[in-house]
Amino acid sequence: MAPPKPTFWGPYLNEAEARTCLSAFAAQVIGPGTGVIFCDGIGAAYLQQPFYDADGSGLVLVATCRAELPPPPPSPPAGGVWQKIERFFENSMTTLGEQQMRQSEAQLAMGQQEAKWLKEGWTSIHEFVEGHKTAFDGAAVVGDVFGLVAGVVAGFAMVGAGVTLLPALAVLAGFASLALLAEDGRMFVAEIKGDEVRKKQIENSRDYKIIELICPLLLLPDLVASGPRAVASITKTTREVQETREVVDAGEEALNAQRAANDAYQEAHASKLGQNNIKTKVQRMHARANKLARALKAAQERLADAQREFIRLRVLELPAYAGSIYAQGLYAVEPPDYLQDLSHGGPEHAPAGQTSQSPHPLGANPSAHNPMNLLIPKGAERRPPSHAQMSFQVAVSHNAAAAKQ
Fold first, then answer.
1. Angle at 119 between CA 117 and CA 120, to 5 degrees
2. 166, 206, 234, 301, 335 from 37: Cα distances, Å
3. For the chain, what is the mean pLDDT?
4. What is the pLDDT at residue 175?
5. CA 115, 116, 118 angle in degrees (round to 5)?
6. Distance between CA 144 and CA 27 in Å, rounded?
7. Does residue 386 contact residue 67 with C-beta atoms inside 8 Å?
8. With the C-alpha atoms ordered 247, 253, 256, 261, is the resulting torsion angle positive or negative?
């Protein structure tokens, strides 16, 4: 007597869909000509007959799919006050645990979403930089020039005042900017000319990789030590220039007034300049004017120094530190090839006969070649879960009639 047909097809809508998926899976895993039998624990159906050999034997994949039964309902609780109290605390703890679990899941989902947003944003930045590489490399060359000039100025300061920490760090950053200027300049010229062969030669050269790896790191000490000081100094220097200019203006007014008073007094007492009292007063007035002139000269010198410091900060140091920050940003968005090789395993860390461009023999997405994917019916992601468990066995079917043939 033949067994009844299955009434439950698990994740499949019907017999035809089950035949399509299971036959493809059997052919991929076991081989062509494999038969397929589907069971639901009660009934069974031959979805595909096997190919029989000369002895009348054939391989059959037996797929058994059973639905998960819901847990049995809890037995009614016994009566009594203490049992009711116990059930109350059990229900309370269960509810609290479920709330905490939902809260943890919500926090985890939020963290995953934030990580996804950050990754997408970082990818967009990287793609934007790649799409405007010539402009960004040109800006890098300009930043290298400012860094080099700042290092030269710091070197002259060290010659005049001796070796100190901040100028020494600026000189180190200047040497790093000089090396970066040479390599970035070569790359920028190749990009302007559209010489892709030359660009590849520069990118693959050992000197370029080492300089692009190390020199941005040499800019960090000067950026950390001197950058905040320069930003704070620009406000202080601006205020000092304004205040000193006010002092100079007041000093000029006072000196002009004193000289005008001297001239007026001498004209008014022109016939009495030989008298001792008049002569003494004129000398005092000239001494007061000379004192005002010396104070004005000192204020003008302070103003000139403050203006030079303001120009140096605004025109040289701040652009140099902005260039250093820009270099660190490019360093983070587009790490040098050495760092990319290390982060991806690198060619030097790949197994023998396998390169970093093809880390898996099946290609960039090995899961796409997984035969288990053949078991998933089309449109399964839009269906409700079937809550089914499927197991597989391989059996040998014997057909006497096929053996006689």
1. 65
2. 81, 62, 83, 101, 55
3. 75
4. 78
5. 65
6. 63
7. yes
8. negative
**pLDDT score of 262:** 86
Asked if 36 contacts 47 with a C-beta cutoff of 8 angstroms, the reply is yes
How far is the CA of 85 from the CAs of 75, 82, 90, in angstroms? 17, 5, 9
Q: Render pLDDT for 36-52 as a digit per residue (tens, 0 to 9).
A: 999 988 889 999 999 88
Bridge-based pairing state of the strands 44-48 and 388-398: unpaired
HSE, CB side, 13 Å, CA atoms: give it for residue 68.
Answer: 9
More confident residue, 92 or 391: 391
Residue 76: how many other CB atoms lie within 10 Å:
6
Here the tokens at position 54 are 């000369």
Is the pLDDT score of 231 beyond 80?
Answer: no
Asked if 5 and 43 count as a contact pair (C-beta separation under 8 A), the reply is yes
CA distance 221 to 77: 72
pLDDT of residue 344: 45
Q: What is the pLDDT of residues 58-82, one digit of tens each?
A: 899 999 988 765 566 665 555 566 6
Neighbours of 36 (CB within 10 A): 24
Instruction: Write out the two tokens for 231.
Output: 């930003």
Cα(297)–Cα(109) distance, integer angstroms:
69
DSSP output for 306-341: HHHHHHHIIIIIHHHHHHHHHHHHHHHHS--HHHHH
Please name every residue paired with 278 in a beta bridge, in sequence order, or none if there are none: none
Weakest mean pLDDT among 62-66, 222-226, 237-241, 341-345: 341-345
